[in-house]
Amino acid sequence: MDFALTASLKLSVSDEKRDNPSNVPPEIFNVSFKELLLCGTELTGSLMDAGANDDLLSGKNGVTFLPISGLGKRPLSLVPHLVCKPTHLLRDLADFGYTKVQRLEKPGEFRYLGDVLDVFPFRSQKAFRLEFWGNEIEAIKELDLAPPSFEQRIEEKLRRSFLEKIMPGDYVVHADHGIGRFVRKQSIEGNMYLVLAYARGDTLFVPEKTDKLTPYIGFGNPRVHGLNTLSWASTKRKVNEAAFKLARELLELYAKRELAARPPFTFDDKEISDAFAKSAGFVLTPDQKTAVADILRDLSSRKPMDRLICGDVGFGKTEVALQAALHMIGAGKQVVLLTPTTILADQHFHYIAKRFEPFGMSSSLVSRAQAESNYNADLIVGTHKILFRLDKIPRLGMVIIDEEQKFGVRQKEKFKELRASIDMLSLSATPIPRTFQLALAGLRDISHIITPLPGKEPIETFIFPFDEEKIKEAIEEELRRGGQVYYLVPRIRDIARVEEMFRKLFGDAFSFDVAHGRLPEAQLLRTVHRFRQKAFSLLVATTIIENGLDLENVNTLVVQDAQKLGLAQAHQIRGRVGRRFASAKAYFFYNKRSITPEGKKRLRTLRQFQGLGENYEIAIKDLEIRGAGSILGKEQSGNIQAVGLQLYSEMLKEAVKTLSKHAKLEV
Questions:
Q1: How far apart (Å, rounded) are the C-alpha atoms in residues 616 and 149?
Q2: What mean pLDDT comes out for the span 461-471?
Q3: How far, CA to CA in Å, does 11 sit from each of 6, 16, 26, 89?
Q4: Mean local confidence (pLDDT), 120-136
């Protein structure tokens, strides 16, 4: 449970039915926190003497805990509405030999989440949840121990990350008390509490393991609420009404897709499927296998697929998409793979040709650099140019969109049109806010790849002010081990100065070339092909390399003027190295004179989240830094500002679930 100290010197236990100021000694400032927290009711001896009976042990009328260890200890029986101090109950469970865990799995375990205690009694077939209202057991419920969903695991991962990395001054949202500011962590009676500051000098002490606290993600400085006021309840009510309104609009939009139908697509040639999977050169991870199974299930239904494959950079999303394409082609349909850049389209095309041609399946490339294209090919790879030539593809069955967030408004409108009748598969490492939101709200199917390929290592990330000597050392270290280097410059106009710096630092020690968006496409592709063939050691490039380049020998990235990059963009660029199993390094150099506070936050976050599979944390932090108003448009920005993104997301998800249930009942 949470404990609050208000400016009026009242001690209140949050979630209690009334304040109890008579328990507060007048010399409140001289009383230790431990003494304040011991104002609760002791667990009575008569309760300890209550014997175990079948009804209680089964949870019918309550729950009984049998001691695992300790001679002479009697069973402990609890019933709803019993006054019982949670801290004393936790002590008794520990004395009984129960183990405190993060997640219940077997008898003899418990976990404490603020005002909720989950226990799996010894010799019981069921686990139970005890819900407290202050010092009273409000309810005892049977607990479902089914494995958590991916969304639950992601939420738990984000919650743990938030609690580990929270900093003094950070805004937080308490589901019951509103927006406050984190002050510090404090140990009280052996338990760790988060100390939060609210308006009018109020203070709230929240158990660290609470599930009611989330980081505030919005924009600007939010309004901090006061404790024991109606302000927060009123704000939540208004935002909840807005969430229901938006949920209705979203459901109407996606209802059209629910009505669409097409024949199921099946491909049962296991020999070809197995041989194609083997040609990848690696065994799929469990997450990749699950994603493929999700797609095949979609294709075998009568409803057009609209699925998002979400996974960190280099985690194998493309391989999942290619296995989906194989099955669609095997069922007699054509597949389009849409990419945001010519470089990525060219890379995909050459790799796809190598993978599919041995199985008698043809491929074609559609881009400005390609003079002629075969629209009858089984798999057609292209940039946005192909979107407005889909009528030339006679047997189109599926469109795969690589990095959907990179496309413009006009292209996204075309995606909406396609979703009404064509099977759609989107791939994303850092999902765009709206896409991520719709998936979490249950309006889009989503498969997650959170397990890296075996042997893949995190990319070591270094943040420095601009330093020519450090740049020289980083490049020479990679060249000494026979590797190649990306040197990224955000602006084309700065490339000439970089070339001059290289001549000064290295002379003719190694060769390099340049790639940027103003080069003729044929020349740009020739440069990338030569780099792939190791014709030169270093590629000076703009952010044009952000999407798609997959060169196994390039394992050092050096970024100049890193303060100019967005967070998600920098994370994506970092993923251009370490594409296989070699150790990789990324150096981000910033200009001390021009870096902004937001730029410093972005670079700090990039260094903070450099482990494998932290794309979700990157996406959330990106929203936090640049503001969450773009998630659902300007109309919803005020609601997000009022309660924070995560609580608003929960409200929207609950609204969608409620309205969907009612819609099914009406039908």
A1: 16
A2: 94
A3: 7, 11, 11, 22
A4: 83
